[in-house]
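Appendix B, example 12.
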Amino acid sequence: MDRQAWIAVTLCVLGLIGWQVYMTTHAPPPRPAIVMPSPTPPNQASPSPSASALASGSALPASSPAPQPAAAYVEKTETLRNADVELRLTNRGGAISEARLVNHAAEKGQKVVLNAADRTPIGALIENPAAPALPEFAISPATEGGVQFSQSGAAGVSVVKRFAFAPSAEKKDNFVVEMNVEFRNESQSPYKNSGYFVTLGSAQPIHPNDLPSYTRLVWCVDGKAKGTDVGWFAEQNKFFGMQKRPAQEFFQEKIGGAEWGGVSNQFFTTLISPLGAKAVEIWGKRFDVKRSDDRSVAGIEGAMAMPGFELPAGQSTSLKFQIYAGPKLYGRLAKLDHDEAEVMNFGIWKLVSQALLNFMNLLHGFLGNYAVAIVVLTAIVKAVLWPLQNKANKSMRRMSALSPKMQELREKYKDDPTRMNQEVMKLYKEHGVNPVGGCLPMMIQIPIFFGLFSMLGQAVELRNAPFLWVHDLSQPDTVAHIPGLGWPINILPLLMGATNVWLMRMTPKTGDTTQQKVMMFMPLIFLFFCYNFAAALALYYTTQNLFTILQLYQNRKQPLPVLEKAAPAGKRSRKRKP
């Protein structure tokens, strides 16, 4: 390798190391919380908007929300529970204050809680999400089970809301609760509502080091999920800094009829699906959460706008919503009726991710351990690709045997690159060598790797799944930190890097000397990119490397390829005739 190539490679490696050091020791301070009217505290709420105001549906400008007067009342709560979820319902807006997932542990042994008591509750009907008015509802047990809320408006329009789990005969999932809303026009004049918002609750990161892309506002239009994450609200530079966009307080977008809207973090989500209508607008706001370790993380809360309706005097109308508040279990979400499984956000590798996730869960059902299931999954994938990899290894060995002749051609025609390429291709053809034959298995493994990467990044099944020293396969397997620097020591990525180097040294050498030396740095670069990813991904890649090394040892026992010129196509065809 010449001097310039060495300088380029060295600068790339130093750049990666410097970036890792910078991100670890000079992380930017948390963004200050946006000064906004806070959600109504539990012991007080704004009075109910008048019927005329609710009918007008005119939301205040999102950029300058007007504070609303508060009237104090005592918060009252009721609880709905089943084997999987416990819902805390509040008279503050007649909605769900918290959803506690009784079978999912958070940090320090606590239970995972969706939404929070100090945020806007899930399923409240409001006029302006930027300054939500949460009136007091009367609360009582519903006649057919569940919890009922009622509130009378000043213009003779009352609202009755019922929350209940679906009857056993219709039960779709334990994490699904039905919200029925009934508007009753008890006045002598028609009632017109031109639109209102349904609050979606809030989502926060599960772990302090979660990527911003995990905490999202999501919605689904025509069976395709869309969304934006907490990183969208920060100041952004576009086109290499030539265009700057200031930090945003709110996200607001008109949508062409959404099947559902919700908020989501890496592993859990709250989705609201209106039945019989579709949402016409989505709204979101970023907020900061102070953790017990004095670190701040960014959360997101949202609301979706519903179309208005008209109600004659003395008449009533009912609207129904389905709320899913639970883990992002693909197998359970896929059984729901409104494409809720699209919240998984698998991207372009959707089909591969779904197949691998279903197969991994199938193996876990037999083996009882997700780490063992990943190893067996890797072995099966490797067995399927084994014949193709054997053919590729044979092609690479033939290419390696041709290296001396190729080097002679490069030296002979070093001043004529066009002629050199022509002679090299002629050499390949004479000896029946396919120069891309060794790349085909790698090309097939690319969608498998990225599909698995996308799947493992959201597979809630892997949360708290142990393996030897690993306590949680969904997180890096950090065993300690380097004193003074605070860098984590992750064992599986280091093993992955070591097997990459081992594999690189065993692979037959092809290409020129410069290409070979540049490829030597690939394990180091790959290690930097994957160092803080889920331990399950490092386990998969390390296992795959070990199986590939085993296959290379088996291939090396075969006789060395003999370089013989391939017979012309015409002669080969004549030989086949009797």
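The first strand starts at residue 44 and ends at 45. The chain is about 30% helix and 30% strand.
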